[in-house]
UniProtKB/TrEMBL annotation:
GO MF annotation: an example: UDP-arabinopyranose mutase activity
Top-level taxonomy: Eukaryota, Viridiplantae, Streptophyta, Embryophyta, Tracheophyta
GO terms for cellular component: cytosol; Golgi apparatus
Compartment annotation: Golgi apparatus
Keyword Transferase attributed: no
Recorded family membership: Belongs to the RGP family.
Name the UniProt record assigns to this protein: Uncharacterized protein
A Pfam cross-reference name: RGP
Taxonomy, superkingdom: Eukaryota
Originating organism: Pinus radiata (Monterey pine)
Keywords: Golgi apparatus
InterPro entries per record: RGP_fam
Amino acid sequence: LPKECTSVQQCYVELSKQVKESLGKVDPYFQKLADAMVTWIEAWDELNPTTSKAESAAPNGAAK
């Protein structure tokens, strides 16, 4: 994985690209798997925002 990947999400998306490139040629299942991996990370990020995103979304800051 590239050094630019600094989070689990970035690593997982990069892994999905590698799955699609390397294994997608072997079986179409892996193309679908790679797409599903990206969808899963997008859903995870939407439902589990990072602390900084949650704080900025709250009108008066995060509750303490």
